[in-house]
């Protein structure tokens, strides 16, 4: 799963296998089977069985599983249910400290070994949703294991606001600081732009959703968590690159490929020197726009 290409990630309750199939038929870049908030305690076993069945049915598709938190008493049971399956990403809620990353990494290594997967092939998504998590965002994002394991942060506004005893306004101005902190930590650590909290006020108000998504994009978020299929097209549109950025990226990639063909060592585009990191950044942008022919 390439995190840098995720513009929308759609939650589906683990107790609703029919909705998993419907979610996979949408344009969501990722689907998250939820074993945590959307599942009451008496339904946890059922949700795990659904997750197992869907992972077996849709092997290595863009499916994540949101486990219960590390200290919930349910996390280990979730891991047991996921053993031997072709999981592409584990979504872990309520991550607050850097050392928790090591615990999650050990758990993922166990899952990889049990499933015969390549080491570090399962991605890790960390949900930052508390005051402590926001303050420790860089310790989480910058953990050394992320030099090998794909990782990404996500922000959960509802639990964050509850942690602070804070009432959110329609404009969400109160989220200015935590959004900046989570985004800055992600980029400083070399991770993709994080996923923003889902918009939950009025599922029919797509204009308000778009405004909320644009506020997140403005501070470096790469996509948004979704709780309804109708939110997916809006998020995909907001977090897709602009035509101007696409055109420039295409120009740079084309010039780079021509340079390789001609054996030239220095590349300038519109008077600016271009090196391989810039080209790779352009390729990521084009993959996000679904326009990179080399993306496979």
Automatic annotation (TrEMBL):
Pfam families documented for this protein: HpcH_HpaI
Cofactor: Mg(2+)
InterPro entries in UniProt: Aldolase/citrate-lyase_domain, Citrate_lyase_beta/mcl1/mcl2, Pyrv/PenolPyrv_kinase-like_dom, Pyrv_kinase-like_dom_sf
Domain HpcH/HpaI aldolase/citrate lyase per the UniProt entry, residue ranges: 7-229
Record flagged with keyword Metal-binding: yes
GO MF annotations, alphabetized: lyase activity; magnesium ion binding
Keyword field: Lyase, Magnesium, Metal-binding
Binding-site list for substrate: 66, 129
One GO-annotated biological process of the protein: oxaloacetate metabolic process
Alphabetical list of PANTHER family matching this protein: HPCH_HPAI ALDOLASE_CITRATE LYASE DOMAIN-CONTAINING PROTEIN (PTHR32308:SF0), LYASE BETA SUBUNIT, PUTATIVE (AFU_ORTHOLOGUE AFUA_4G13030)-RELATED (PTHR32308)
Name listed for the protein in its UniProt record: Citrate lyase
Organism, scientific name: Desulfoferula mesophila
